[in-house]
Amino acid sequence: RSLAIYRRARDRYNEALVLVHLGDVRAGAGAPDTARDAWAHAVGILDRLDPVAAAEVRAKLAQGPARSTR
User: Fold this and answer.
1) Long-range contacts of 14-22, Cβ-Cβ distance < 8 Å, separation of 24 or more
2) pLDDT tier at 19 (50, 70, 90 boundaries)?
3) Residue percentage of the chain with pLDDT more than 90
4) Which tens digit of pLDDT belongs to each residue from 34-56?
5) What pTM did the predictor assign?
6) What phi-psi label fits residue 53: left (phi over 0), alpha (psi between -120 and 50 degrees) or beta?
7) What does 3-36 look like in DSSP terms, one character per residue?
8) 34-55 core/surface letters (b: 16 or more CB in 10 A; e: else)
9) Is the confidence at residue 66, as pLDDT, over 80?
10) What percent of the chain has pLDDT over 70?
């Protein structure tokens, strides 16, 4: 629901943050493919808005979902 709200508002930064959190939740739930999809989409947005945050999400992608959850 939050994702849809941010998309409608064209709030790309918060859309990306929601995608990162969704990826974390999906990774924790044992859905690595959908976790990677969410993180990859977030990186695409964050590359333009917050390169430091994009690098952090890239690290999650490089590690793989099993080791990226908190």
Assistant:
1) 15/45, 16/41, 16/42, 16/45, 16/46, 16/49, 16/50, 16/53, 17/42, 19/45, 20/53, 20/57, 20/60
2) very high
3) 89
4) 999 999 999 999 999 999 999 99
5) 0.88
6) alpha
7) HHHHHHHT-HHHHHHHHHHHHHHHHHTT-HHHHH
8) ebbebbebbbebbeeeeeebbe
9) no
10) 93
List all residues 6 or more positions away from 59 whose beta carbon is below 8 Å from its beta carbon: none
Instruction: Tell me which amino acid residue 19 is.
Output: L
Q: Considering only CA atoms, which of 47, 48, 22, 46 is closest in space to residue 36?
A: 22
Segments in 29-69 forming alpha helices (H): 32-49, 51-63
Nearest to 23 by CA among 65, 63, 66: 65
Sign of CA dihedral 18, 60, 62, 32: negative
Answer whether 54's CB lies under 8 Å from 39's CB.
Answer: no
